[in-house]
Design brief:
Length: 495
């Protein structure tokens, strides 16, 4: 049965109307991925020297063993956002006269063919060959490396189960990230070192194959946990209606106070929480709120007077990340129903204003959630206030204006993070206003006067943009109305 299923998967991809475009994008992604994996392999080759010479740690093996837990925590995070679920492929096979168990085994097995599953081997394989083999022998190097790889592969199956079981549950997602943050926070504060607690497990693998047997058991159990859940829930009605039933009534009632634009914003919110790609952007928005922890307490960015110019980017990024990420596909999110808005009275104008409401509301939420950064100094609060005003008054209009340049259609039911439908040159160029516009205002005043004068200029510019906001937003709406036939024609192209 394996060969027919592989043949069907190949024919599906080759017969797709977007096969040529997907092939071109695939080649580019393959080249980028090849270089990234090569860099990881080179990093693994010099890992022992980095530990000994740069960090000054004499026992590199003990140090790596105590840090492996944090690597696996990081792996949990990037697998959560990157690793794809085989659910949509499952819909294509359930109606066929095939054993459901065999179909699920095939789909789970195909999901295992991923560059993510060789990252641990590329990083720690050279380390085992260079460092562990010389210090403990070949047998120890093999058993240690196998223990690390089995742990990584167990995470693969755990994430497949977790994303399918809890991805639509905010509580489930927050519980995992809370556990990760608490573990890192305890270790950083010296209250409890989780890495040192799990270090004996990998140290023991240098002496005995027992950890391999235990980790292999964990791998098998995690696979069958994933298999059992998919087997139990593999029904077409569950796959096609589950999201709709779960999120049907989750609206933001207060938006109705803003008239038709508020109703459109409410519909846009439902779109976000019902589809994985848009919901991923919302989740990333919450994760990137922690971005400031990398910079605000870092001695490398501390100055005797004023503050580091890098903080302007950090504040802009934290308070405007959703507006930039979600806004780069400004109308592509609505491409399947764009003709509906075209033929409604004031439909496009309400659509644009509704998106403005949503951008401002979520950005305001990000600003409020970032207020605890005042712990690092009141100047951080001033930075976030100034950058928030600038994002609302200036950057938001720049993002929307660029997003109107040749928007492309997008299927909301496909992929999540690394799905490039709807992406064009302008979508990649949107990062320019996020980087350049705030500094174009801040740097001259910071140079002529001081950093706080630059903040005043940044906030004042944003405040002026908010004063003239009705006029600028009307111009953006008129721009969409002017281009409606061109945009609608582009959206009618087959994906």
């Amino acid at each position: 049965m394996l060969i027919p299923l592989l043949k069907l998967e190949l024919l599906k991809r080759m017969r797709s109307s977007s096969f040529t475009r997907s092939l071109a994008i695939g080649v580019v992604v393959f080249i980028i991925g090849f270089f990234l994996l090569t860099y990881l392999f080179l990093f693994g080759l010099v890992l022992n020297r980095l530990v000994k010479e740069v960090l000054g740690v004499p026992n590199a093996v003990h140090f790596i063993n105590s840090c492996l837990l944090y690597f696996f925590m990081l792996e949990l995070i990037y697998r959560y956002f990157i690793q794809q679920l085989p659910v949509f492929s499952l819909e294509n096979f359930l109606h066929l006269p095939l054993s459901k168990s065999k179909i699920i085994h095939f789909l789970l097995g195909s999901s295992f063919i991923s560059p993510l599953n060789i990252i641990s081997l590329l990083i720690f394989g050279p380390f085992a060959a260079v460092e562990i083999q010389q210090a403990y022998g070949s047998f120890a190097a093999i058993t240690w490396l196998v223990a690390v790889v089995l742990t990584s592969w167990s995470i693969h199956w755990f994430i497949l189960w977790f994303k399918q079981r809890f991805e639509d549950s905010l509580i489930g997602t927050l519980s995992v990230f809370t556990a990760l943050l608490l573990g890192i926070g305890f270790s950083y504060s010296g209250f409890f070192d989780l890495g040192a607690f799990f270090e004996p497990v990998f140290t023991f693998s240098l002496e005995s194959p027992v950890p391999i047997i235990l980790l292999l058991t964990v791998l098998i159990l995690s696979y069958f946990l994933c298999f059992a859940y998919y087997r139990q829930n593999a029904y077409l009605e569950d796959l096609s209606e589950g999201d709709y039933l779960q999120f049907a009534n989750r609206d933001l009632g207060f938006l109705s106070k803003f008239g038709l634009a508020g109703e459109i914003a409410n519909l846009e919110w439902k779109l976000i929480i019902r589809h994985k790609k848009s919901r991923t952007y919302l989740t990333l928005c919450l994760v990137f709120l922690l971005y400031g922890l990398i910079f605000y307490n870092n001695p490398a960015y501390q100055t005797d007077t004023g503050f580091s110019n890098v903080f302007i980017f950090v504040g802009t990024f934290i308070t405007g990340i959703f507006m930039t990420q979600y806004g780069q596909l400004f109308l592509s999110w609505n491409s399947p129903a764009f003709d509906f808005y075209v033929h409604q009275r004031n439909g496009l104008r309400a659509l644009v204003r509704g998106k403005y409401l949503l951008f401002m509301g979520i950005s305001l939420m990000c600003f409020v959630l970032s207020l605890p950064y005042a712990y690092f100094g009141w100047h951080i609060l001033l930075i976030h206030t100034a950058t928030f005003l600038f994002n609302m008054g200036i950057t938001m209009h720049l993002v929307i204006f660029l997003a109107l340049w040749k928007p492309k259609p997008m299927d909301l039911n496909k992929g999540s993070v690394f799905n490039y439908e709807g992406m064009g040159l302008s979508q990649f160029l949107i990062i320019i206003p996020l980087l350049a516009a705030p500094y174009a205002v801040f740097l001259p005043f910071s140079y002529w006067f001081n950093d706080y004068a630059g903040l005043v200029a940044l906030g004042a510019t944003g405040a002026f943009g908010l004063i003239v906001f009705p006029r600028i937003s009307s111009l953006m709406a008129e721009k969409v109305i002017e281009m409606k036939y061109e945009i609608a024609s582009a959206f009618r192209q087959e994906l």
